[in-house]
Design a protein that fits this description.
By secondary structure, this protein is an all-alpha fold. Helices cover 68% and strands 0% of the residues.
């Protein structure tokens, strides 16, 4: 874990005493995000590999339910009949 953190691009490199490098900041931020996603995907793959077929099916159901709840909550703030 600590090794992963040390290999992360340092956002502070985009800042100097007199300047802010916007392009470098964007590049480093994207690299950090990509590495985070890669680590998360690797962790999920490791866990998924040890699940039974029944557990995999249950996980799929749980993910589908979570996505449905997110869709409902994002629609909840908007009125369905806003064009009266």
């Amino acid at each position: 874990m600590r090794e992963n953190m040390q290999n992360m691009p340092k956002i502070s490199n985009a800042f100097s005493d007199t300047n802010f490098d916007k392009e470098l900041f964007i590049k480093l931020s994207k690299e950090r995000q990509e590495k985070k996603i890669e680590r998360k995907a690797q962790m999920i793959a490791s866990v998924y590999a040890v699940l039974t077929p029944a557990q995999k099916a249950e996980l799929r159901k749980m993910i589908d339910q979570k996505m449905a709840m997110r869709m409902e909550s994002s629609m909840g703030g908007k009125s369905k009949n806003s064009c009266k």
